[in-house]
Amino acid sequence: MSEAMTGPTNEPLSTGPTPRRPLLHSRRQALGVLVATGAAIVGIVVLVVLWSSVGARTLEASAAGGEPCLEAYAADDAGAEVSYGAMPPQAVCSWEVDGERQEVVVTAAPTALAVTATVLAVGGVIGAVALLVVPRVRDAR
After folding, report:
1. Would you state the pLDDT for residue 16?
2. 84, 109 in Cβ contact below 8 A?
3. How far is Cα 59 from Cα 99, in angstroms, rounded to an integer?
4. Residue 73 has what pLDDT?
């Protein structure tokens, strides 16, 4: 063999790619990552639906009329404003009546559903990352 084809110990050099360690070590780990990812996706989708429905119901309530705060907001009254809360998903209309600030909850999503969806989303992401990272850290040691 020629000098260029051997390494420092006179063993032939590998010409192919180095084998990569598998990302997932077992079927059990793959199933865990699948379940965690599914939980995260379900949680995120439910949260998006809740926030979207709060916005849509606020628009419907504004178009339907009957709520003095929303009517003042639609008329561009300087003291009226609509704010949205993320947790729990809700729309709150505030305005001044006789010099006193009042707030009216226009619409809100169920708090228990929002909390459950948040736990699924955050727990699913953390679980999937943990299932992928922890074995690699153990292998590196």
Report:
1. 62
2. no
3. 27
4. 85
Task: From residue 107, give the alpha-carbon distance in Å to each of 3, 89, 103.
Answer: 79, 9, 12
Q: What pLDDT was estimated at residue 7?
A: 53
Q: Strand pairing of 90-97 and 81-85?
A: antiparallel
Burial class of residue 134 in the structure, from the number of CB atoms within 10 Å of its CB (0-12 exposed, 13-18 middle, 19+ buried): exposed
For the chain, what's the residue count? 141
Tokens of 27: 């079927």
pLDDT band at 70 (very low <50, low <70, confident <90, very high): confident
Determine the distance from the C-alpha atom of residue 118 to the mean position of all C-alpha atoms in its chain, rounded to a whole number: 8
Chain-wide mean pLDDT for the chain?
85
**Is 54 in contact with 84 (CB distance < 8 Å)?**
yes
Instruction: Answer yes or no: is pLDDT of 6 > 60.
Output: no
Most distant CA atoms of the chain, gap in Å: 98
